[in-house]
């Protein structure tokens, strides 16, 4: 099993494909051609209304990390409004999507969490959890080449594996897991509660 704690110095900032914002790339499997990746995990700040970039052949999941609300107008679907308490929204990257952010009362910009996988080769899951006094058991993928990825958006979280090994993941940091155990237990650290985003990536 390979465990890697990643922090802001490991992340890469880059312009959006449509040039209207900036993405912070947390993890990626690069490939030549197409959009340059097989899968990508990232965050971004959405401060103004506008279109999403188009990614043909890509499955996307989007969730809100912090801030107010984000209303999405998605081609062929009813509008949907996302908050920090709504489930991640799944859609095809080839769809035409525009967004309208509404900042919260404190004027905090909206940060989102985005997972993208190339549909013909990879699949993913994304879940958002608030961890309080009770531990959360995270079921990890065990198939070949699978990757599990934890991002701590608030507080700090401790991940304990079957052999008793424990890692602490501070706020704004991530944990990448490859060749994993069947599960690990997540507990909020000194700052309670902790907000985490849990992603799994598996080959089809």
UniProtKB/TrEMBL annotation:
<protein>
    <submittedName>
        <fullName>Protein Ves</fullName>
    </submittedName>
</protein>
<dbReference type="InterPro" id="IPR014710">
    <property type="entry name" value="RmlC-like_jellyroll"/>
</dbReference>
<dbReference type="InterPro" id="IPR010282">
    <property type="entry name" value="Uncharacterised_HutD/Ves"/>
</dbReference>
<dbReference type="InterPro" id="IPR011051">
    <property type="entry name" value="RmlC_Cupin_sf"/>
</dbReference>
<dbReference type="Pfam" id="PF05962">
    <property type="entry name" value="HutD"/>
</dbReference>
